[in-house]
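User: Show me sequence and structure for the first protein, then do the same for the second.

Assistant: Starting with the first protein.
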Amino acid sequence: MSTCTTQTAASGRRLDPLLLRAEFPILEQMVHGHPLVYLDNAATTQKPRTVLEALERYYERDNANVHRGVHLLSQRATDAFEAARRKVARFVNASPQEIVFTRGTTEAVNLVAQSFGLQHVQRGDAVLVSHMEHHSNIVPWQLLCERVGAKLLVIPIDDRGVLELDALDRLLSPRVKLLGLVHASNALGTLNPVAEVIRRAHAHGIPVLLDGAQALPHAKVDVKALDVDFYACSAHKVYGPTGIGALYAKKQHLQAMPPWQGGGDMILSVSFAGSKWNEVPFKFEAGTPDIAGAIGFGAALDWVDSVGLGAIAAHEAELLAYATERVRELPHVRLIGTAPEKVGVLSFVFDDVHPHDVGTILDQQGVAVRTGHHCAQPVMERYGVPATVRASFAAYNTRADVDALVDGLRAVREMFRV
């Protein structure tokens, strides 16, 4: 893994998860008579008090629309909103003009598909994705391909959940007009060699979109060093609010792309004879945005910076190694996704016990995990399973959380006699 683009090693700082837990009010509760053990972080992370306070402060003190008002509240709201844009830009090493606020990763991918995609993908062309994609990086491209008469091509993965780069080379051709790839798999935990994939795609003149929803909380992202064309992410995966995210896009792409939604704030002028579009990134932000969400997003990134992303990544890597070892000790358990480079995701199946039953029993023990296909049904088909149990880790998780997970899995074994 290239340390110039993605750093998961500790930067000399160590975190104390017990101290961090005190910053998350939701973790103080009991569930079915047990202390909450929250291991569903790949679905959404919990929010520290600083994020909750930022949301409350906006609604109590600064609630007003942005960009359009001359009164003090509007000015304060605009300042806070645009400060959040700068924080997102700084977090991924972009310029603020290259950051478009969206409802999340899904909307960001759809924006690229419906604007850039409709410009560049025509009948007979192809869009290339991988076999480990979340549905959000499959369905928008299927819709585009169906609309224009293009084809969706798929890069295979091996039994470990590792991208087959030799197959990638065979699939790259002038016919491919865009490559969409998950930076880190939500179902397998695989951390893809995105710098190398981008280099190979760009050698063929193919732009690349990365789905960064699962990578942003765990690995340092530098869009300039990666030279990626588009990077999509969500705030709620990185300790921020739901319903807000961002799209990074190279400025030249944004300037050339048509708006994908029309309305207020994305225009310079409107008449019945025609309209003129606003400058980027505002051209892509029609209507009143999620102002509080953006402010909360910025506060979440501030919190991550205060803890240290390197320290978070090192802590999660240690937890993943510990959890992998402990779960592997259990009989009749098969791990799904064993790539050598992973983020904090551990997926597995129990022989003859449906994952939903496993999740229900764990919930009765106070342990929250995700069960199902994780919006990645092609991954499930690749491994011949209908669903998996997924435990995923964050900065506030501890070894005691892993032990509670394993104790719960032992209760499953006893109940189902496996």
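Switching to the second protein now.
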Amino acid sequence: MLVCGAESERQVRAIVSAIDDGLRKKGVRPLSTEGASEGRWAVMDYNDVVVHVFFSPVRGFYDLEGLWAEAPSTEVKDKAPKKGTGTRSAGKTGGI
């Protein structure tokens, strides 16, 4: 099980899209995907792996990590973009 958090409903949809696109390029398709269009909680079933992408307030409400508290977990943090990649932060540019 993979549990992801997002800061907006748009970001939930973007994460789902990126996972789907990346795995489809490798020939992997989900058995089913639910909730992606609403952007609050999406679940993608890949049989051996189930991906949950939550809008942050919804993630806290459902607390899947609490239900699976005895299972081993690994936290993955975002990597900062490399300099010169063309990535801009709205906070640094005063908004886009």
